[in-house]
Structures are given as C-alpha cells and as structure tokens.
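#lab-general

N.A. 3:47 PM
ok so I finally got the sequence cleaned up, no stray characters, all 191 residues accounted for. can someone with queue access submit it? mine expired

B.Y. 3:52 PM
send it over

N.A. 3:53 PM
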Amino acid sequence: MQQRRTLRDDLLDAAAALIIERGFRRVRMQDVADAVGVSRQTVYNEFGDKWRLAEALNLRENDRYLDAVDEALTQHDDLYSAVAAAVAYTLGTAADDPLKKAILTGAGSEDLLPLMTTRAEPVLFAAKQRIIAHTLGQWPHLDTTEVTDLADAVVRLTMSHVVLPMDPPETVAARLARLVARYLGDEYTNR
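B.Y. 4:20 PM
back already:
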C-alpha cells in the first residue's frame, strides 16, 4: 500500500509541475507518465481520466493547507487570534502558490477553475469538517451548531478571497475573525 501512495504522490507532483509549466489543457496523461517513468496506462489506472487526476491533485493540496490551518489554530488560545491566523495563512499561502496561480490566472488552466468555484464541494466539505472537528476539540464548550454555521461561512468567504483577492490577507483575516467574535460573543475570544 505504501508503494501505491508513493506512486500516486509522484504522479500528482508531476502533474502539478506540468500544469504550472504548461497549463492544464496542454498536459496529457502521457506527459505525466513520462515525467514519472511509468506507462500511460498506469496513470489511467490510478486516476481514471485527466479530470479525476486534477481533482485528486486539488484534494491533496487542500489537505496540505488544512494541515497548516490545524497548526495555526492550535497555536492560539483564543478563537479570534486562531481564526485570524488560519485565514491569513490560507490567503497568504494561496497568493504565493504557483499551482493556484496557474489555475486562477494561467492560460490553458481555466478548465480547472471549477475545482475552486462551481465544483468545489469536495474541498469545501473537507475544509469545513476538519475545521469543525478541530474547533470543537480545542474549544469543547462551543455550541456545535454555531461552530458548524461559522465554519461554513468562514470557509466559503476565505475561498472567495482566494479566488478573487481584493484586500491584503491580514485585513481579510481580521474581518473574518471579527465576524466569528461577534457571532459567538466576546466571551469566547480574548481580544
């Protein structure tokens, strides 16, 4: 099983590099296979088709972001600071992420934009679930329904700022942290 994961990661790494370099439209499954030194059929066996390869890449990148978001949340005792740190990390990292840039602005990669907009359900669901679990684990006194509502709103707003950044990450992070603080009441935040 470990060998399968390593091959999958190698294929995803190769696909990411090729998308950044060429754009999604100009990447063929054969190109990914050649970059890793396997047959084209191996790539098809692993992912099924090019779109599912892109989905798998997007989900893996999302998991990496969420690992760092977990870390940002853990480093703060109060919810305001935790939310601000997590959102600032996400927006700052996304702005510098070559793969995100290729998807959002790169010629030939506009076909991938739905993975961050109209077909973003897997990413949004995973982010929401991880944030809810982490938040309730770190602050168990919070109401589950309120945390669920807030996680949905903050994840969606953060994603919208990834797709169309309008303000510096720290400004957006402070805004969203204030939203959480006002919704829950200042007794849950130490600002």
